[in-house]
Amino acid sequence: xxxxxxxxxxxxxxxxxxxxxxxxxxxxQDVSAVFLDDGVYQLVKNQDTRGIETKNFSRTYRALxxxxxxxxxxxxxxxxxxxxxxxxxxxxxxxxxxxxLAQRMAEQDxxxxx
Amino acid sequence: xxxxxxxxxxxxxxxxxxxxxxxxxxxxQDVSAVFLDDGVYQLVKNQDTRGIETKNFSRTYRALxxxxxxxxxxxxxxxxxxxxxxxxxxxxxxxxxxxxLAQRMAEQDxxxxx
Amino acid sequence: xxxxxxxxxxxxxxxxxxxxEHVTEGAAVLLIEDGVYGAMKGTHFTSQVEKAMAKVHVYxxxxxxxxxxxxxxxxxxxxxxxxxxxVDLVAEHSPVIAWL
Amino acid sequence: xxxxxxxxxxxxxxxxxxxxEHVTEGAAVLLIEDGVYGAMKGTHFTSQVEKAMAKVHVYxxxxxxxxxxxxxxxxxxxxxxxxxxxVDLVAEHSPVIAWL
Amino acid sequence: MKFAVLxxxxxxxxQASDTAYHFxxxxxxxGHDIVRVFFYHDGVYNATRLATPPRDDRDVVKRWSTxxxxxxxxxxxxxxxxxxxxxxxxxxxxxxxxxxDNVAPGFRISGLGQLIEASIKADRVxxxxx
Amino acid sequence: MKFAVLxxxxxxxxQASDTAYHFxxxxxxxGHDIVRVFFYHDGVYNATRLATPPRDDRDVVKRWSTxxxxxxxxxxxxxxxxxxxxxxxxxxxxxxxxxxDNVAPGFRISGLGQLIEASIKADRVxxxxx
Lengths: 114, 114, 100, 100, 130, 130
Known about the structure:
The complex is a heterohexamer, with 2 copies of chain A, 2 copies of chain C and 2 copies of chain E.
Chain A: E1 2-4, H1 13-26, E2 32-35, E3 71-75, H2 76-81, E4 94-96, H3 98-106, E5 112-113
Parallel strand pairs in A: 1-2, 1-5, 2-3, 3-4
Chain C: E1 3-6, H1 15-20, E2 28-31, H2 46-52, E3 57-61, H3 62-67, E4 79-81, H4 83-92, E5 96-98
Parallel strand pairs in C: 1-2, 1-5, 2-3, 3-4
Chain E: E1 2-7, H1 16-29, E2 33-39, H2 60-71, E3 75-78, H3 79-85, H4 90-95, E4 107-110, H5 113-121, E5 124-128
Parallel strand pairs in E: 1-2, 1-5, 2-3, 3-4
Helix pairs in contact in E: 1-2
């Protein structure tokens, strides 16, 4: 399981975490990606990085399904605190409560966070 | 004015900020050092870094007076929130309220933060 | 009059909160990088920024807002600037403090 | 049972707060580096840690506590470990999550 | 038990690299097996042989190199992260037409697959970062 | 007006270095004078000539070098921070008996006094960091 708690663009972690998720999927691992806290910002639509002159990697989240990464979890409380709804997101996600997410975490073999 | 808002040891900023304060004093600048938020942890007594095998630079704060750095400001609210009192500190400081500190900041020519 | 810059999300770090406790009347606060999330409406932090706007001028860097896809969610009254506007704010204010 | 590691001050970042919202009964929480400030008594964050201690085991790295001079201010019930004890906690728990 | 270690930050600026070192050393001292230490993001800066820290401070790079030699540790630096940040071995230097390399003894540069592989082989993965 | 710029973080990992660059370029474009750009802490990593970022991404180091050449900018790297982190010019390499240097064109390595001096000369000091 890959846990993403950081906003995109301000630091490189979101971008490099996405690379690991894709590589992990290529290894036929049972991959799940979690977005909570500021990590939910990674999935916001309409990101346009031309002004800051960096790569717009947000489109790559749409490719996750092609790599059979279909377990994308997002925490409800994190979304609500940031004034966002599912309609604001780039990809379909499974929305979980904090306790549901805690349960999923506890079932993992490996958790990577960046 | 040098503004310190970060805890020591977890990152190098506190250590390298202290270097700048000392160099600034050597240039005969009118130096003041502010410790607020987690920056107040920098001045806590009894730091012993032998276990983490890094330099114990906390003793250097005691040398600030030798360099004529006598304007050391610390914010009351930051200290209280962290369960600390003046008796816990390495050096004598001038305790200010948030509003008093805001006023001092506004009077500066240059503010460096790390 | 002072210029305060903040480059951190108000949800991850205490930089914006601490900044707003140390502003004087009429100062300028510029949100850049991940700091622009502090300019959004409808968040758990919005009311604190709205309250501060009675006292200080709040600006946000347009390029950082667009990079994060939140261009339609910015609080009314937040002034948008580009890098040139950032330079102008620095030229017009003194001192400048970065809340790192 | 899980092991959660936190290396950030609870005053600067939301890592410890977020961690404590995602622990299951009986899990272990290990405070390291600047995270050990979360193990202090008498702070504005102490009551949240005390409440969590009814549900989880809280540990802190002794070397990091000593480096920060807070050895006399640690909350009762926090287990002190050295690097070897950190290794043992990892060996005894699974999975391990770092709240970066 | 088999551990894999992930280091996300560079030396000196963040304590993460120190803690990862002390953890790894303690695990080896207790007879555990370290499958691999993988350096990602700014973690790749742990692998430069050009660092010359002050004499009264620890030498983070050399400490890793020495531990690698002593325990035949596999220290792997992520190639993509390293290219962005100017950490190169002889092969990489040739490939990119650079005049110099700078990787320290005991480190090798390889792909992200090495992180995934290590996490599959290991019983535990421990992450150190910011 | 005279500006001094302080860069506390390295390229790619933190946006601070990007923002500092865009700010500096915009200030120069408006006719302001940049007294000095000082690279401290991990900021020294902006000065390695061994970086080879992917073609579809910006080249942070080269961008600074080009701006320096275009405007005769003074890009100064803190020597103490650079020594810890393996950023060395020819003089430093000789002094420490290293086999290679790695500093990029347009950067020079000097002491912290250059930061203080720049902050005295400048009308404004702007800090970019983490």
